[in-house]
Fold this sequence. Notes:
Layout: H1 3-30, H2 34-63, H3 72-101
InterPro entries: PTS_IIA_lac/cel, PTS_IIA_lac/cel_sf
Protein name: PTS cellobiose transporter subunit IIA
Pfam families: PTS_IIA (PF02255)
Amino acid sequence: MDGMELISFNIISNVGMAKSLAIESLRDAREGNYAEAEKKLEEANTYLVNGHHEHKNLIQLEASGDKVEFSLLLMHAEDQMMATETIKILIEEMIAMFKQLNKPSLV
């Protein structure tokens, strides 16, 4: 496995974990376990940041004048990263809605 493949797989692996944890956090929130949901979202964010660091390294490499070889694998990695970002944002909003809908009424 060459450097580009390894970087692509590192991105895919990290953002895949982030997506899985974000989905798990939504399931926890649906059950009312908000503390566990928040914990999993924080962990998901760590994985997402790791994926971004790998991607940033590629951008810096190309910016320094080194040619970054485009591949279907890299395109897949970037697609997964963008999808995970979107999913995580939506899940954060859904958890906020769960909290708001399940807040005890003062009436």
